[in-house]
Specification:
Blueprint: E1 20-21, H1 23-27, E2 33-39, E3 55-70, E4 73-78, E5 82-85, E6 91-108
Antiparallel strand pairs: 1-2, 2-6, 3-4, 3-5, 3-6
Length: 118
């Protein structure tokens, strides 16, 4: 098949409190990671870095608000915020009173080849 499709409601929650939905696995993506995270109101996500995997990561906040604790600094975020992280950067999302929903996309540096003027 030349494409795959899913809807977030059809992906079972996993991890602590079912907060992560493994989009990459369901779609069969092999070129990069992509997952959906729903962090409950006034709670913390998982603190981590990607030093072991070497992945550069972009997180896109699509609903709610809160802060990202990045290397100890608290950075306010809301829907429409994009954050890019070097592999060794320690970060943790912290949801505000309305919760925080985000999409994380990651791949090893150098795996993307820009083309055209875009």
């Amino acid at each position: 098949m030349s494409y795959s499709i899913t809807h977030i409601d059809d992906i079972e929650g996993a991890g602590p409190a079912g907060s992560v939905r493994f989009v990459r696995r369901v779609l069969g993506v092999e070129a990069f990671g992509i997952n959906w995270f729903e962090i409950a109101p006034n709670s913390e996500g998982h603190e981590h870095d990607e030093a072991d995997t070497g992945q550069e990561e972009v997180n896109v906040v699509i609903r709610g608000s809160g802060v990202y604790r990045i290397e100890g600094e608290e950075v306010p975020v809301a829907a429409g915020t994009f954050l890019r992280f070097d592999p060794g950067t320690t970060r943790v999302p912290v949801a505000g009173p309305d919760g925080l929903t985000m999409i994380a996309v990651g791949a090893r540096r150098g795996s993307y080849e820009p083309r055209g003027p875009f």
